[in-house]
Amino acid sequence: MDDLAVRTCIICGEPKSEGIHIVSEFICDACEAEMVHTDVQEDKYHFFIHQMKQIWVQNNA
Q: What does pTM read for this prediction?
């Protein structure tokens, strides 16, 4: 895949070109950075977990 291709981030839903691929899904750099700096006690942490579960649900459906 072309490194400059625009993909939709599974976390924020925005089209971005920079980020990481996990299985067949894409997470943009901004969401990745926010996820690794979010404390487990924050509400946003649970949102990230929910969104990440979608990777496994889609592949195991």
A: 0.80
